[in-house]
Every structure is written in C-alpha cells, then in structure tokens.
Design brief:
The strands form 2 sheets. The protein has a 4-stranded antiparallel sheet with strand order 1-2-3-4. It is of the alpha+beta class and about 220 residues long. Among the domains are: about 60 residues; about 45 residues, no CATH class. It contains 7 helices and 7 strands, in the order αβααββββαββααα. The two termini are about 40 Å apart. β3 and β4 form a beta hairpin.
C-alpha cells in the first residue's frame, strides 16, 4: 500500500492523481547540465597544459581527474535529487478532498475538504496549453485560504474532476434535492455520514450543523 493510500479514510476513493509537469524540472536540468558541461570543458582545456609541469604532471592530472569526477557526480546527484522530489510531490482528488503530499524522507501532507472549496481559477500560458499544464488556484474557506498548484500536469482534467466530486458530494448529502427526493429513511443515514466526515476533520462543526439542519427540515 502506497503512502497516499494510507491517508484515505473508510469509503474514500482516489479519483485523479497528478503531479507537476516535467517542465518543472527544466530549470534544474539546465543548471546541473551546465555544471557538468563546464566541468568537462575545463578539464579538456587544462589537461594538455599539465605537460609543461614536468615532474608534477602526474599529480596535476590526478587533481584534474578528481575535480572532473566531483563536478560530474555533483551535477548528476543534484539532478537526481530534484527528480526524486518532483516524483514524490503528488496532487490527488478523492471523493472527499484534495490532497497535496511532498517529501522523500520526511513527508508533508496538506488537504482541503471539497466542502470548503469556494472557487477554482485556472491560468494557462500559450506553452501551458500546448504542453498540457497550468497553474490552479484553489480558494477555500479554511485557514490556508488559497492553495496554489503550479505547473500542474493535466490541469483541466484535475479541475474538472475536483468540481464534479464537489457537486456529487453535495448531492449525496441532500443539497440541491427537492424535499420529495429525500425519504425519511435517508435522513439518518446522511446525517451519520456527515458526522463521520466531521469526526475525520473533513468538515467543520458549523458545516455539520448547517447541513444537518437542512436535512432535518426536509422531514
């Protein structure tokens, strides 16, 4: 079982999993690639000059070889670490919330209940539309306020799934139904489901009481 699966509550399912687009690694690739190239160029330029050092040539060659190895390994190690961090950062839409998890060794997780999402803003540049990524701004009623997902892969799919789950969640709890669509037998079950979400911290006490009152008013 993966790390994200361990975070799910009973009955909660994953709808969409995504992460940052590979374009997020472009800066790291360019910087670390530059370090490697510069190291190799310097080695190629300085190596012929060691012939004028006489008896010190072997020592100079050894030093240059060590510096070459350090430069190449350093660049590759940094790129590898950045790639692992990119891979470890995931954005997930579940049937109840949006989860953001990051970190390779020390994990950090933040989530926003679908009930608390007030607005979603998607911004895509020309390159974003061509390559399939965008910046998603999720405005919530929680303490976080705004959750920014930058350079999100398949941002349109992620946004659509999130809004669909939010609408379905509201429908499941009787919101938007006519009074004759909720039977007397449904109300206790819906209230129990709401209470389960409240105990898990997915909705606040105020939200629970508000939705409970709406359901009771339909009896």
């Amino acid at each position: 079982m993966g790390y994200v699966e361990q975070l799910l509550s009973k009955g909660e399912t994953i709808v969409v999993r995504s992460r940052q687009h590979w374009i997020a690694l472009l800066a790291s690739t360019l910087i670390n690639g530059f370090i490697i190239v510069v190291t190799i160029v310097l080695y190629a330029f300085l190596r012929p000059l060691t012939g004028s050092l006489g008896g010190l040539k072997s020592i100079a060659d050894t030093v240059l070889s060590i510096l070459l190895a350090i430069g190449v390994v350093f660049g590759l190690a940094r790129l590898g670490w950045d790639t692992l961090q990119w891979w470890a950062e995931e954005y997930i839409v579940t049937s109840h919330r949006v989860i953001q998890t990051e970190g390779i060794i020390n994990k950090k997780t933040a989530d926003s209940s679908l009930e608390k999402i007030n607005d979603v803003v998607l911004v895509q540049s020309v390159f974003g539309r061509i390559l399939g990524y965008g910046n998603l701004e999720i405005v919530t009623g929680s303490d976080i306020g705004v959750n920014n997902l930058t350079r999100l892969r398949d941002a349109i799919t992620f946004k659509t799934a999130m809004l669909e789950q939010k609408a379905r969640l509201g429908h499941d709890f009787g919101e938007g139904r006519a009074p004759d669509q909720v039977s007397d037998n449904d109300v206790p079950k819906l209230i129990q489901e709401l209470d389960d979400l409240r105990k898990k911290g997915l909705i606040s006490d105020a939200e629970f009481n508000e939705k409970k009152a709406k359901l009771l008013s339909q009896l």
